[in-house]
Amino acid sequence: MQKPQAIRPFIYSCIASTTLLCAAPVFASTAASQYFESEDIFALEYANDPQVSPDGKQIVYVRNSNDIMTDGTHSSLWLLDVKTGQQSPLFVDQFNYGSPRWSEDGNRIAFISDRSGSRQIHVHYVKENKTALVSQLTKSPGNLTWSPDGEQLAFTMNVPAQATPLAKAIKMPKKPEAAKWSEPAILIERAQYQADGQGFLKSEFRHVFVLPATGGKERKLTDGDFNYGSDLSWTPDGKALIFSANTHKDWEYQPRDSDLYQFTLANSQLKQLTNMPGQENSAVFSPDGKHLAFVWGNNEKVPYTNGKLKLMDWRSGEIKDLTKTLDRDVENPQWLDNSSLVIQFDDKGKRTLASVSLSGKLEQMTDELSGAGLPQPYLSGEYSVANEVIAFTRGNAQRPADVAVIANGKTRTLTALNEDVLGHKKLGQVHEINYKSSFDGEPIQGWYITPPDFDPTKKYPMMLEIHGGPHLAYGPHFSAEMQRFAKEGYVVFYDNHRGSSSYGERFAMLLHGKYSSPEDYADHDSGVNAMIDLGFIDKDNLFIAGGSAGGIATAYAVGLTQRYKAAAVVKPIINWLSKVLTGDSYLYQTFHQFPGVPWENVEHYWKRSPLSLVGNVTTPTMLMTGEADRRTPISESEQFYQALKIRKVDTVMVRIPGSPHGIANKPSRMITKIEYILAWFNQYKTNSN
User: Fold this and answer.
1) How do residues 402-425 score in pLDDT, each as one tens digit?
2) 20 to 30 Å CA-CA from 402: which of 222, 445, 540, 609?
């Protein structure tokens, strides 16, 4: 696949302002640059969803390429020969493809694509090299799953809910032909009425369907105003489907509760299989059908718990815990054979694959799942297994995800998707650093990126970049954003402060009820001091940035200290009292991250709010948020901006039109975020040497 050509030079004019910022970044052509430039982001690619054929000889995967003309990510399907590594295109055109799934006999690949004008299910016949459109659905399908005999495809799809009594009772007169009336009113009755990236939710629910694999009419299996089947699994005999759901009348108020259900196709019987307090999901049968493995997480009113791998004896119904002693969050179990499974979990900044025997014996296989995201070094990665061959997305600090395999005890990388872009570039180098927090001596793990052509005898400006979540984690993984900052001469430091995932429940829960606080800032501050002690950091040129939970932490930090020359506060929460009742996550956050409703706990909410410290802020602060953000609404940034302006603190607000919480979900927006932050920091940076 050819890469996009280099961007032609273009310039945006500056607007009248009290700052030196332009309305948009200025780019020049850097086609021959030996460094990582912003326009290189458009040429990056990454692999995801690798699926091994049943015989273990081939892999189909999704190849994602940024598109400079559409400012999006284009997805295609490619085939890999496991033995030779030879790659061939399966579907590479102007359409988008995803969710490839092999039939049990390996002769067909089902997938979802918009090639017919809307997202529909297709089946590709491998030997015949022919493809059939098999669905005519009114909504986009998901969770595509073959039946064992290859005769049916199960999937999920949203279905409009029945009109409520109030909706039926509203009688509007008929609009005359060609009349121009105002837009109709939107009636909202549900508790969960909005979602970031979706806006106001339509009155519809996710249901389970089956469809003949040769095409025909889909059959709806589930009923009621509930969401069914975030994952689907067939019984080995193909007579029933297993999936998770919460059918309690108050399900919207139970964000961490779901049970496993069995739907028998012959008699349309829906049977509840589990009734444990908490979430049961990701159910998968052993090849011989004797055991059902699934993941369970408790429903305590806390912000973080580990998922546990459970094993059900299918005949007796007895359930046991296979990962009782593993203090990590287990995900995505898949059977390696009848006596062992493969699981993934995050461990100290890396995503790990391990095998688990039926007696609970754990053996690590690889910790190199990575690279299935571009902006920041979050933990990521996917895998599949068939015939004892494991395909997974493999990345590192220098490259986004390629496809790799574990077969016959050996690990090999089969693709090199970014060598044409990055192979000749000088990139920043990632180094690990470990230190103790000044607050309580808690060990903290971090990393730092040194600029290309780094000289340890010189002094460099440093940027502290704080991750979101807060129960997420960074690691030694590729980050387009941080590579750009490093190229521009900054040492970029990031850590997994208390509250981060991948270090067990105790560490994650150290931030419970303290989001944000002087305690997690002490973790960052101690890391900054440890970096200064290395000898190449200019202590008079320190900068701080972070997004989402990292934006909260950054805004809180500048209320605690004046040691930073400038700050970039991206998509933050500034006032928890207002956010918790305006953002889309209120049903969860109110009771899992706080002691209760805000009107009964005003002091607690206010203490956690950066706005409570705004009277201390003197640090020049940029605020950046998407105008369509419903996770951390832009009204939060506006409060901080206005407060800082009242106090005459140097501040700017950058609004990203149309963007939800994920500002970097389009290449140009990622570049905008990077270049605005660089321009802001460069205004306050002084000569380091």
Assistant:
1) 999 999 989 999 999 999 999 999
2) 445
What are the E-state strand segments in 221-317?
228-234, 240-245, 259-264, 269-272, 279-285, 291-297, 308-313
Structure tokens at 182: 């105002």
Instruction: Return d(Cα 11, Cα 669) in angstroms, integer.
Output: 16
pLDDT reported for residue 688: 65
Instruction: Name the residue with tokens 């002693």.
Output: 325
What's the distance, CA 305 to chain centroid? 18
Please state, for a pLDDT cut of 70, what percent of the chain lies above it. Answer: 95
Report CA-CA distances (Å) from 189 to 146, 165, 193, 630.
Answer: 37, 11, 7, 18
| Alpha-carbon gap, residue 381 to 102, rounded angstroms | 20
CB-CB contact of 95 with 81 (8 Å):
no
**Residue 284 in contact with residue 334, Cβ under 8 Å?**
yes
Q: Which of 589, 676, 576, 663 is nearest to 626 (CA)?
A: 663
CB neighbour list of residue 646: distance below 8 Å, 6 or more residues apart: none
| Structure tokens given for 334 | 């898949």
The pTM score is 0.92
- Cβ neighbours of residue 520 closer than 8 Å, sequence gap 6 or more: 470, 497, 498, 499, 511, 514, 553
Relative to beta strand 199-200, strand 269-272 is unpaired
Helix axis angle for 549-557 and 518-533, nearest 10°, is: 80
Domains and CATH numbers, the chain: 448-467+479-493+536-684 (3.40.50.1820)
